[in-house]
Amino acid sequence: MFVLGFTNEIAFSYGEQVLIGEIHINSFSESFHSPISYWNRSEYLSQWRSGFNEIISGKKKTAIVTSMYDPTSANFIVIWPLYLVGKDVFIRNRILFIEDLKEPFNEAKLSSYIDDRETIDEDGEVISEWKVSVSDIHRVLASLDKGIDKGID
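RESULT FIELD:
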C-alpha cells in the first residue's frame, strides 16, 4: 500500500505556513510539513505527478519533493527518492543539502541529484527503504489526477 497527499489543513510551523501532508507506505506512516513560501499546493502536486510519471515510464531513479524552499537561499530540500527495479519501486527519505551539490540547484534536474541505489552504506549498514509496486504508483497517481490527494479520508 502506498498513499501520499495533503490534508485540508494549513498550519504554522517554526513561524511559517505549511501544508500538512501524510505518507503511508505499507506499515509505515508519517505526517510531514510542506512549506508554502516558495511552492504552493498545486506546485507540490505537479512535481509529484511528474516524478511518478517518470517512474511509470521506466526512468530508474527520480524523487518527489515534500519540503521545497527557494533554492537560492535554502540550506536543504526534503525529498523521497524513488528507484525502479523491475516492477518494484524502492522509496527512501532524504534531506538534500544544497551546499553539497556540485552546481546550483535546478528543479528540472532533480533526478540528477539522486545517487544510484545502493543497499548498504559506507559503514556496512542496510539502508532504510520501503518497497511498493509500480501498480501502487499508478494508484497514487490516479488519486492525484482525480484531485484526491490522499486516499484515507
